[in-house]
Design goal:
This protein has 237 residues and is an alpha/beta fold. It has eleven helices and eight strands.
């Protein structure tokens, strides 16, 4: 894979406390990666204002707030996401078909009405911090992780979502269930030279890309590195 294609598949998670830190990371990494993820930690402190500041740097944003509420509330959250001009945002697939459909309909309606960019919408399947033990003995969900992930992925596709967020270990299952055009974004990415932290179902960047991930999300191994640019360049070692 050439360098530019590789770059477009990397999303850096801006899981930091301060807006200055986030903006600095964007500035030094924007020529080396395709996307930046703004999650709860950063958004709940600095809000849409910071998202607009990041967008002004000419980069793509994945808004990772995992909407999960009644359908009308999620619809309005989707509309707010369109107004922030993000490239992607996500909802919990376990919120159900109606909730996901309302997210799509709300985003599409406002993007067409106001001639705005229509972001891609992703469904979160099973968090990469969760294990089979969690599903079986804590949540009492029937079936294996494979079964649950595939069911949620198919439900997200039925609702009109563009893809899912899932562990790289589930890529093959999702491809089989949903086809090659359904986008798969994979957190739980850890280079060989890093530690897994609280992630349970992980792969290296190279393994995830080779398995068919469209975008890999990497956080701590890069943002906590002494030299983040060097860390990005070493992801595929």
């Amino acid at each position: 894979m050439d360098q530019n294609k590789c770059k477009q598949k990397i999303c850096i998670a801006l899981d930091v406390h301060h807006d200055e830190t986030a903006l600095n990371l964007v500035e030094i990494l924007k020529d080396h990666v395709g996307y930046f993820k703004v999650g709860m930690q950063l958004f709940y402190k600095h809000g849409p204002c910071l998202v607009h500041q990041i967008r002004k740097k000419g980069v793509k944003i994945f808004l990772d707030l995992k909407f999960y509420d009644i359908p009308n509330t999620v619809r309005n959250a989707a509309i707010s996401s369109v107004h922030m001009n993000v490239n992607m945002f996500n909802v919990h697939a376990s919120g159900g078909l109606a909730m996901m459909q309302q997210a799509v309909e709300g985003a599409r309606e406002i993007s067409q009405k106001e001639n705005r960019f229509m972001p891609e919408i992703l469904g979160v399947t099973i968090l990469t911090s969760m294990s089979s033990h969690t599903l079986t003995h804590e949540l009492y969900w029937p079936g294996t992780i494979q079964t649950r992930v595939c069911e949620l992925a198919k439900l997200a596709q039925k609702a009109g979502l563009d893809g899912v967020v899932a562990s790289p270990l589930e890529i093959e299952w999702i491809r089989s269930a949903c086809g090659s055009k359904f986008k798969i974004i994979t957190p739980g990415i850890r280079p060989r030279w890093s530690v897994s932290n609280d992630q349970k179902r992980v792969m290296t960047p190279a393994q995830a890309i080779n398995a068919g991930a469209d975008i890999i999300v990497v956080g701590r191994p890069v943002i906590e590195a002494e030299n983040p640019v060097e860390a990005v360049c070493r992801l595929f070692e």
